[in-house]
Write a structure and sequence with these properties.
NAD(P)/FAD-dependent oxidoreductase, about 20% strand, disordered N terminus, 5-stranded parallel sheet, FAD/NAD-binding_dom, oxidoreductase activity, 7-stranded mixed sheet, NDH-2, disordered C terminus, globular, alpha/beta, about 500 residues, FAD/NAD(P)-binding domain, binds flavin-adenine dinucleotide, 2 domains
Length: about 500
């Protein structure tokens, strides 16, 4: 059921002129709205323009810092940027766009309030649309994957994974069952792009460091396996540096399997295409991304991979008043041979927002549009503390210099001076003190202690206080044991399913 025919009536503040609706509060959504609020300052002040940002989270996540957040080098709070503070001239709606009918200039949005009230989504009308819902993990129908694996795209996943890894060490340390110990100390990462490699390298570094504080776990007892279907890893840094990264990981006893696929991960056993079977309680899936499911619920043109077909001016091809950029958009790469698209990465996303905001402003004021042109300059990747690999502006770096470049580059890129100062302070302090190695997985169950005190029973828990995660939980073998991290508005079904069939039900689409 659609609650309101026009969101304008429910929005506080004076009625406005042109409404720019930005869907997504990530790189593209946040930077585009930020640039627009600067460029259209006068129009915003006079009520001639209104910018509405629809996003499931009140923050933008600086994804390149997720591996360091998982390793504990940066606090989760500093990996995210509060949208309300950044976009103080915009209206922020916390919710998920479920569909867009561009012909009628309206988006159907499930907000936190409509989910809470059970009243069904609202409709938000607009004059200009900016679609920036990004991408989600690209999964395959592998037995056990949906039940046992975790992705690595959100801050909740990164912190959930950190807690989980440390908990597995606690389990291994306290069990007498060799099979449980073996499974707890085996960590399988699928996908050799920067997300998978950086996540694995940072967590491995942290876990081997933590092992020194366990009386019965040696660093060599931990098994980290990287499974990659192609014959290389880190294609973003080029072949030579990719080979160096493999050597570096193998020298740390990380089992890098190239030209290998994950065939199944049911019942805590990972089965690889080379015949290997290993018990594991941890499967991290980072084997690529696909466009957000919302795109399939729009009337906009999509290419064969489901990205929105765009022009180099970042307009949606053949459609007026619709714009897109970032992971969700197929933008022609005018610096490469014809037919090539810009790759889904932050380097393009953040630069596209500049052109996007300029073009939207120009179109509102009747000016000419610019083309987006940026030649990919290469990439930097961290391989754990003081280790890295980089291929940027034709220069190849490895080891400490590459790691330093990685930090300097991302410090320069993370939004706001406030965040930069906080991250720098954290890095400085972590250089002076020992690493944090506690798991705060219990934060995911804040009521557990009270429920127990009040006489309630939790599934799988005996009358005594038991660790909330662990082998004694019995029938809950999924990852991470217990509820999946990240309470999001997405999963609740709409009280009245829409007749057009929502492809996103059960997904938050980020
Ligand atoms: C671990 C990791 C490390 C990375 N490291 C690098 C790196 O070093 N260098 C690099 O160039 N790139 C890197 N990337 C990729 C980069 O982060 C992405 O390319 C970039 O974030 C894309 O920006 P975007 O705005 O298109 O999508 P996102 O930043 O993902 O933003 C999409 C937003 O849309 C929201 N959304 C989704 N569905 C809906 C909906 N239905 N309604 C409303 N809102 C919705 C999401 O919640 C999210 O806020 C990394 C990615 C990951 C996961």
């Amino acid at each position: 059921m659609v609650k309101a025919a026009n969101f304008r009536g429910t929005t506080p503040g004076p009625p406005s002129g042109a409404r720019i609706l930005v869907v997504g509060g990530g790189y593209v959504g946040m930077y585009t709205a930020l640039r627009l609020q600067r460029r259209l300052k006068q129009e915003l002040a006079q009520g001639g323009v209104e910018i509405v940002v629809v996003t499931p989270d009140p923050y933008m996540t600086y994804q390149p810092f997720l591996p360091e957040a998982a390793a504990g080098s940066i606090s989760p709070r500093h990996v995210v940027v509060p949208l309300r503070r950044m976009l103080d001239k915009c209206k922020i709606v916390i919710g998920e766009a479920k569909a867009v009918d561009h012909a009628k200039r309206k988006a159907t949005v499930a907000t936190l309030a409509t989910l809470e009230e059970g009243t069904g989504p609202v409709e938000i009308t607009y004059d200009e649309l900016v679609l920036a819902p990004g991408s989600i993990s690209r999964t395959l129908p592998i037995p056990g994957l949906a039940d046992y694996a975790i992705g690595f795209k959100t801050v909740e996943e990164a912190i959930g994974l950190r807690n989980h890894v440390i908990e597995q060490m606690d389990i291994a340390s306290s069990t007498r069952d060799p099979a449980i110990r073996d499974a707890a100390l085996t960590f399988v990462f699928v996908g050799g792009g920067y997300a998978g490699v950086e996540a694995l390298a940072e967590l491995e570094d942290m876990a081997r460091y933590a092992a020194r504080y366990y009386h019965n776990i040696k660093p060599a007892d931990l098994k980290f396996i990287l499974v990659e279907a192609s014959n290389r890893i880190l294609p973003e840094v080029g072949e030579t540096m990719g080979k160096y990264a493999i050597r570096e990981l193998r020298s740390r006893n990380i089992d890098v399997r190239l030209e290998t696929r994950l065939d199944s991960c049911e019942d805590r056993v990972a089965v690889l295409s080379d015949g290997t079977r290993c018990r594991t309680r941890t499967v991290v899936w980072t084997a690529g991304v696909k466009p957000a499911p919302l795109l399939a619920a729009t009337d906009l043109p999509l290419n064969e991979r489901g990205r929105i077909v765009c022009t180099a001016q970042l307009t949606v091809a053949g459609v007026d008043h619709a714009w897109a950029a970032g992971d969700a958009a197929a933008v022609p790469d005018v610096t490469a041979e014809p037919g090539k698209e810009c790759a889904p990465n932050a380097q393009h996303a953040v630069r596209q927002t500049k052109v996007l905001a300029e073009n939207i402003t120009a179109s509102l004021r009747g000016g000419p549009l610019k083309e987006y042109a940026h030649k990919y300059v290469g990439s930097v990747a961290s391989l754990g503390l003081h280790k890295g690999v980089a291929h940027i502006y034709g220069r190849k770096l490895k080891g400490y210099p590459a790691w330093l470049m990685h930090r300097v580059y991302h410090l320069s890129r993370v939004p706001t001076f406030n965040r930069k100062a906080r991250v720098l302070a954290e890095w400085t302090l972590s250089g002076l003190f020992k690493r944090e190695i506690v798991s705060l997985g219990s934060l995911e169950h804040p009521r557990a202690e009270f429920e127990l005190a009040a006489g309630g029973k939790r599934p799988g828990h005996g009358p005594d206080r038991a660790p909330h995660h662990g082998p004694q939980r019995g029938p809950e073998p999924g990852f991470p044991p217990g509820p999946k991290p990240g309470p999001k508005p997405g999963p609740k079904p709409d009280p009245e399913p829409r007749s057009d069939g929502d492809p996103q039900s059960g997904s938050r689409g980020n």
